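Protein of interest.
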Amino acid sequence: MPSFKITYIHAREIIDCRGWPTVQADVWVDGQLLGRADVASGRSTGSHEAHVLLDGDPSRFRGLGVLKAVDNVNNVIGPELVGWDVSEQRKIDLAMRAMDGTVNKTNLGANAILGVSLAVARAAANVNGVSLYRYINPNAHVLPVPLMNCLNGGKLTANELEIQEFIFMPVGATSYAHALQMTTEINEVLRDLVIDKYGILATNTGDEGGFATPMRGIWEPFEFMSRAVEQAGYVDDIVYAMDLAANSWFNKETNLYQLDGKDYDRDALLELYRRVAEKYPLVSMEDPLQEEDFEGFSLLTGELDMQIVGDDLFVTNVDRLRQGVQKGAANAMLFKVNQIGTLTEALDAAEFAYRNSYGVQVSERSGETEDPIISDLVVALNSGQIKTGMPIRGERTSKHNRLLQIEEELGAAGVYAGRNFARPA
């Protein structure tokens, strides 16, 4: 009989895709290393996210080191959890919250707590001899539609494009493998179009793999995207999405949104969105308004027949999501485990979303590592949609390649979400 007792927990400081430090945690069960997880981090973050504990020492990584969080794993969390049953995920996550003693995990750091939480889940899956997605949900079977971020702006790049992400969604694909093929072909056409107008340097990429072009506003990116889709021959198979990250171009002093040299009040901005949706097959918008405007999200959700996703609005937090449900704000939640700091709390938020007929869009962070854990989580949730960046660098391709493996493992039992991405069966 396998042992389920944790015998050792250890963390270290590693580097994410931006070269910034983050936490990697190991969990040993019965003397064997069975669980390892990396903690991703964001650049564009909501103010209500769980606390990432940084060293603040300007002599190391300009203050971005995470040795304090590592020490909290090795000398506070780890010794306390030795001897615990690795399969008791909820009990372990709640215990770490209690050790921290704050709402936002300020003392120990959400990066310390989450690293252990995810590594525990991996270790438990390995003890049971199953993949993580199957361990979390024995009925996991939905392969997600990838949201391919093809043009980057906002905090993801150094260009002047305020909107953070313009996205292809290959809903007409027949499988995840087909979706990757389709969007890669479109992206190569888009690359040629960008070079033709702006030159080769405009194909440099942002944090999430989209081209960091000198485009402005909202109309020009869609013009380029639609031309690329048409030339690649996939007009009937592709729809569009945006992550607007509107909080980053909202002026709190004037209560106006500043986009492409123009000021928009909320009503004017909503009218702009309606015009875009009339011209292009836009099916999903993330954070189209600032993070405290529940009323505006409600208005937009009621007026536009599409998916409205709350990221900074909800931060994978049941309490924030409850406010949204009560007010009819948005109809989908972005799922980022590091926003809340434990796997249990993130899964609880997803469950609450489902119970209230909200969709769940699983997402990476701009500061990713090679760890593909969100690929297992999106399948475990049967969520039908994942935002993990263009497949051009290791921290992005690892997620796509893991989903290809899962698709193969599921075989005939696997279902590609396709046009049912918002409400997969």
About this structure: The longest helix spans residues 176-198. The radius of gyration is 21 Å. The domain at 136-420 is CATH 3.20.20.120 (TIM Barrel).
